[in-house]
Design brief:
333 residues; Rossmann fold; 11 helices
C-alpha cells in the first residue's frame, strides 16, 4: 500500500523544546534548547514513522510568543508553495507553539484555501519531559492530515486526540494536556484506536483570502485589543488610537459591555475613523450587534474571541472591506 506523503513544517514552540531535567515542564522555554523537525519525527516509534512518507520543511525555531502577522504571512506562503509544487502531498502538518496557536491557526484558515488538509499541532510539555505529549500529538496530526475526510474542512487543530476547527478553538489551560477546547460547538472529531472520526461538520467558515495589498507595498494595519474591567477609564483606548490603530477589539465584560468611560473613548475612536469591534472576554458565548452598538457605529464580534477577532479585523481592513462587509464576516456563527 502506498504511504501517504505528508509535509511537516516546523515553527518551534514547546513541541520542539527540551530541557536538561525531565521534570521540567515550566522553565524549558527560557533555558531549554531547540529541536529540529527531524528530531520530532525521530521521537516516534519506527513502526509509526513507517506509515508515512514525511518531508520535513524547517520554518523557524522561535517560541510562539514571538510570532507576528508578517511571520504568519510568510508561513502561509510556504504552505501554499509546498502544496502547489508537490501535487503528491496528502496533507500538511504545521508544528507550532501553543501560546499563540489559536491565532496562527485562525490566520492560516482565513487566508488559505487548499485542496489537502492543513493540520496545526503543538504540545504542552517539552520533548524531554516525563510523558511528553508531543509525539502522540504529532502522530495524531499525521493521521488527520492523511485522512481523505479531513480535506475541505479548512485548517484543523489537533491536540489530545481531538480535532478542532481553527476558528472555534482556544487554549483554555496553562499546563494541562486537555488545553485546547472549542467551547461553543465542541470538537469536530477525534482520533481513536488509530482511526480518524469526524462527528460533525463545521456549518460555516469565514474566509478572507490573501489580501491583494500585501506584498505590493501595503502595510498591515495596526489593530489592538483593549481589555475591560471595573473602573476602566479609557486611557488605554486613547493611547492605542494615538499610536495609529486603525482597528480596536474591545474585550468587554460579559456579555460584551464596557464601562461608561471606556464607551466614551470608543466613541471618540469611531468618530476618528477607527473600526471598533465589541467582543467579550468570556470563555464562550457570542456578542450580537444589539441596538446600542448599531447606534454608536460599533461592530459585534459574534463568537470570535478577542485575539482571533483581531486577526480577522486586520485582514479585512487589508482587503478594503467596509464596515458592513466586516460585520457580515463576524456574523457567521
Amino acid at each position: 500500500m502506498q504511504r501517504p506523503v505528508i509535509a511537516i513544517i516546523s515553527t518551534g514552540g514547546t513541541i520542539a523544546r527540551q530541557a536538561m531535567d525531565p521534570r521540567d515542564t515550566v522553565d524549558y522555554a527560557e533555558i531549554g534548547t531547540s529541536l529540529g523537525g527531524a528530531d520530532l519525527l525521530a521521537a516516534l516509534p519506527e513502526a509509526v514513522r513507517a506509515r508515512f512518507a514525511v518531508r520535513g520543511i524547517p520554518f523557524s525555531s522561535c517560541d510562539s510568543v514571538e510570532m507576528t502577522l508578517p511571520r504568519w504571512f510568510e508561513l502561509a506562503s510556504v504552505i501554499s508553495h509546498t502544496v502547489a509544487s508537490q501535487p503528491d502531498l496528502s496533507g500538511v502538518v504545521v508544528t507550532h507553539g501553543t501560546s499563540s496557536l489559536e491565532e496562527g491557526a485562525c490566520f492560516l484558515d482565513l487566508v488559505l484555501d487548499l485542496p489537502c488538509p492543513v493540520v496545526v499541532v503543538g504540545a504542552q510539555r517539552p520533548a524531554s519531559a516525563i510523558s511528553a505529549d508531543g509525539p502522540a500529538n504529532l502522530y495524531a496530526a499525521l493521521l488527520v492530515a492523511s485522512a481523505p475526510q479531513a480535506a475541505g474542512r479548512g485548517v484543523l487543530v489537533v491536540a489530545n486526540n481531538e480535532i478542532h476547527a481553527a476558528q472555534e478553538v482556544t487554549k483554555a489551560s496553562t499546563y494541562q494536556l486537555e488545553t485546547f477546547r472549542s467551547p461553543d460547538f465542541g470538537p469536530l472529531g477525534m482520533i481513536e484506536a488509530n482511526r480518524v472520526f469526524f462527528g460533525r461538520a463545521s456549518a460555516y467558515r469565514r474566509h478572507v483570502g490573501w489580501p491583494p495589498a500585501y506584498g505590493a507595498g501595503g502595510e498591515i494595519p495596526r489593530v489592538d485589543i483593549t481589555y475591560s474591567h471595573a473602573g476602566a477609564d479609557g486611557v488605554g483606548i486613547r493611547a492605542f488610537v494615538q499610536a495609529g490603530a486603525r482597528g480596536l477589539i474591545a474585550a468587554g465584560m460579559l456579555p460584551g459591555m464596557c464601562t461608561p468611560a471606556e464607551n466614551a473613548a470608543l466613541d471618540e475612536a469611531v468618530a476618528a475613523g477607527v473600526v471598533v469591534v465589541q467582543a467579550s472576554s468570556g470563555y464562550c458565548g457570542g456578542v450580537v450587534r444589539r441596538h446600542e452598538l448599531c447606534q454608536r457605529g460599533l461592530l459585534a464580534a459574534g463568537h470570535m474571541r478577542p485575539r482571533q477577532a483581531r486577526i480577522l479585523l486586520a485582514l479585512a481592513l487589508m482587503t478594503g472591506a467596509d464596515a458592513d462587509a466586516i460585520q457580515t464576516l463576524f456574523d457567521q456563527p
